[in-house]
Amino acid sequence: MTTVALVTGASRGIGKACAVHLARRGFDVALLARTNVEGERREHSSTLARSDTSPLPGSLATTADLVRAEGQEALTLVADLTDRATVAAAGATVLERWGRVDVLVNNGRYIGPGHMDRVVDTPLELLDKHLEANVMAPLVLAKLVLPQMVERGSGAVLNVTSSVAWMDPPAAAGAGGWGLGYAFSKGALHRVAGVLHAELQGTGVACVNVDPGYVATERMIQDMGAFGFDGRDAAPPDAVGAAVAWLACDDHAREWSGKVFVAQEMCARLGLIPGFTPATNPV
Fold it and tell me: Which of 6, 76, 195, 248 is the one with CA 20 to 30 A from 59?
């Protein structure tokens, strides 16, 4: 029987790379994101100081084509991580259509103002959005897929964490650092793997923190130069995608359950992308 992966934030960046590399390893892939087709416009500025609704490269349709080009099935799911009902409906759709989820990759996160704003300048409702998208949405999906994983005796929940979960910024948000919304929501997500690992002992199901490191995603290149993160010394998303796909296979996730899987380091160590060298920036 074909194995199934569900990847959030799959329209571009790390999520897109994970989807393609999982397809190469034989997974059918359910793709969840907001952007259905290329050219859609929505707010993606990291700060309240200015608006930016220019289209970002990438879409569910484009990623789905890439998955199908690898010979696997793709299911596109339009959902907003800040809208719990759409996330739950998307997860239920995968189980209804395909009957299983073997690997859940919680990669997507809140995109918008408050990411690079200082605490005194950030409305509390934007901090709520960070928590909803970065913590509660992954938990909605985990609670949906875990029962069938446990019943089957196998499966993995892979949560994309960040070093901001345990590291203080080198400067204030907008001056080389990052905002509280990003940091404290990633910190909360980071605690999930350890708790689930303890609860899932003996079930055959794993939960792993995946640290992607500094990655040159499409949005990083287009948006983040003004904040000191232009992606020039960052790793390609494929490095993380290849490492996540390796982790998803052959029970590797069980070995890493409850731990931090440093994707770029593992990609280099395993030779998953010939000649790849991890980025030196720790974020």
Answer: 248
